[in-house]
Amino acid sequence: MKQISILGCGWLGLPLAKSLLAKGYLVKGSTTSLEKMGVLDQVGIDAFQIELSATTMIGEVNSFLKNSEILIIDIPPKLRSTSTENFVAKIQTLIPFIEQAKIQKVIFVSSTSVFADDNSIITEETTPNPDNESGKQLWQVEQLLQYNKNFKSTNVRFGGLIGEDRHPIHFLAGRKEIENRDAPINLIHQTDCIAILEQIIKADCFGETFNAVAPFHPTRKEYYTQKAVALNLALPEFIENKISLGKTILSDKLVNILGYEFQNKTL
User: Is the C or the N end of the chain the one with fewer CB within 10 Å?
Assistant: First the structure.
């Protein structure tokens, strides 16, 4: 029975762990919260309290990684507050532990923010050109992991994450002077995120990079206006006389290489 360690059992990592357990995998999961340890234990996840910094690993990291064939790294960089972190250094701190544990395969949950909003059509052949700190650090980490010769790493660049309890319309509803009205949306549902990660594991598809965005790209104004109406929320108001900046992320490689079919195509 294959054992998998998931570093970061949060909004995506926890339901992923539950799904993998249901499919017969042994799963170790980490959280930084002592309170959440019980939640993980209750569903059958072998829980570890681990905190990763730019200089140290706090917690039983060796036990967390021991005997796992695959490590899934799902810890987003904390770069939206006034105190930004060095996410690259955090992963550099982690890598020797991966090597020591002889982990064979790594999946890194990245983001389409590695691409700038320059109105391009983006495929995996497009060279990343991040225009924000989060994207810059994610791109560096992608390269750190994929160029490591001690394990095979696959990067999965998810678009904007949505789910039953998470949707950007709740933030945008009623707001005024929203920019980029004509920019296309690049979103993906939580259920597709989980299914894609499981398909990578099932197909043993490592050493790759995948964009992961639903094949559905209406403009921001069109999509969020319709979503607000459907949910009986206040309409968002967009700036009308300003050029929009965005990008269109294509995920054709998921279909061509993995044979993946999106479960939520219209979101």
Answer: N
